[in-house]
Amino acid sequence: MSACTDANLVPSNDKLTKNVTIQLVDWHIIGLWVVNCPSAWICVNNYNNVGIKNITIRYKTYGYQRQVLDTGLCTIEQKVPAGGMKNFTEQALGLVNIESDMLSIELIKVERD
């Protein structure tokens, strides 16, 4: 389950977030020409000694000329255990431009479980 929010959230600098990495493994657009939404496979590594939840990421889509088309936030509400790794497949990130050709993600914050 994921939830999309305001794209203007300020990144967190806390130690908990610094000990987490995310990787965009794969993605594709779902709902072509009707509802365009990136569906992503995101791998989360938690190097903390406590579990985490509510993993908030910022995503950006880019057009064919590498111009930014869309920016948004999405929160993965599931948990990752201490010292663990978890794959989140088919994460619907939010509505995007039909000409979206590339996708990037950035970790914004996590919460202690």
Please explain how this structure is put together.
By secondary structure, this protein is mostly beta strands. The protein has one domain: Sandwich (Immunoglobulin-like), CATH 2.60.40. It contains one helix and seven strands, in the order βαββββββ. It has one helix at 15-18, and strands spanning 2-5, 20-30, 37-46, 52-62, 68-76, 85-92, 102-112. The protein has a four-stranded antiparallel β-sheet with strand order 1-5-4-7, with no helix packed on it. β4 (52-62) and β5 (68-76) form a beta hairpin. The longest helix is centred in the N-terminal third of the chain and has 4 residues, at 15-18. It is elongated, with a radius of gyration of 14 Å. The chain starts with a strand and ends with a strand.
Furnish the topology, listing elements before pairings:
Blueprint: E1 2-5, H1 15-18, E2 20-30, E3 37-46, E4 52-62, E5 68-76, E6 85-92, E7 102-112
Antiparallel strand pairs: 1-5, 2-3, 3-6, 4-5, 4-7
Radius of gyration: 14 Å
Give the SSE string.
EHEEEEEE
Largest sheet: 4 strands, antiparallel
CATH architecture: Sandwich
Number of strands: 7
Estimate the strand proportion: over 45%
* Share of residues in helices: under 10%
Mean of the pLDDT scores? 89
Count of spatially separate domains: 1
- Which fold name is given in CATH as the topology? Immunoglobulin-like
* Spatial order of strands in the largest sheet: 1-5-4-7
Alpha-carbon distance between the two ends: 16 Å
CATH class categorisation: Mainly Beta
- Give the quaternary arrangement of the chains: single chain
Q: Give the overall silhouette.
A: elongated
Q: DSSP helix count? A: 1
SS content category: mainly beta
